[in-house]
Known about the structure:
mainly alpha, DNA polymerase, domain 1, hpI Integrase, Chain A, 10% strand
Amino acid sequence: MEYRVRREFKEGVLVRLSLGVPETDSYLEFVRYRCRPNTWISYAYDLQVFLNAVKKPVTQVTSADIFAFIRNQQEGTDQDGDGRRPRRQGTGLAPQTVKRRLATVSSLYEYLVVRGDTPIRANPVPRGMPVRGRVWGGWSSGVTPLVKAPHHLPMPLDRQVVSQFLDSLRTSRDRAMVLLMLLGGLRKSEVLGLSLEDLDFGQRTLMVREAKGGRSRVIPVAASAFETMLRYLNEERPRSASTRVFLAMKGPRRGQPLSVPALDTIIDYHRRRAGTPEVQCHRLRHTCLTRLSQSGMSLEAIQAQAGHRSILTTRIYLHLCPKELQEEYLRLADSLFTPQGEEAASNE
């Protein structure tokens, strides 16, 4: 039997996700109000992948099955992440994806254990592999993650690439959305979640209500972004009952809120048109936050602008991109490594 996520809508709103398994369906109903809609959907597809991989009832899964699932994801199967498109054999998923799916499965079993009305008495997903390490004066024990994911530094876009991409945008709507990510550091979901009441043109601030983790924040945004938004609102935005700022401007969805896939399509079209394949929504946000850090903005202020829960997340922006690192190195290298004899000769 192959499990598939079923979606139920009421008046155009997604109200239920199910897989036909009582335990997983109960869990999905539980997390529905605890996370953002996109996260909820991701949980459902993660569990779909898990059920199709283990091929066992949820209540009979063991730790051995969990290790087999990890290996299945790391080595690659005949399907991609959501089971909808073929994936070449042997092309395993990224460690971050495997780790996220494992976290979803672990959360499912923690829920079932706490519920207490199933045969499950312990979470079959190990918290990690035990390790011992030498410390000052003896040994200590700890755990290492089941899946180790590398930490990648955010790579800002070059100014020339950004300029080239912006020149390809033909509507004030598209330009405003890009500027909110590039100058305000917003996530694409936060851009699309903006309502008209969230814009304060007098103070040039935005209320970001639909932020990651459900945390709202008020942030300043550059005047050029507000000027572009004002042109869009006055000249391009269709008349609509929706209060969302960014709407579809043509086609059968004209006047309805723009969706994430639609924004991805817009960005993909313009980066192909501009010849800038490296441009992505999240790299626009990374570029904003990296430039703010390099310009001397405090870490706490960047954390507030970005909407990070932990300042440790914000610390990844305390770096130089390779091009700037190279320029800084070359500026100092000669003086750092000039032999003393040569330095003395040059002073005579």
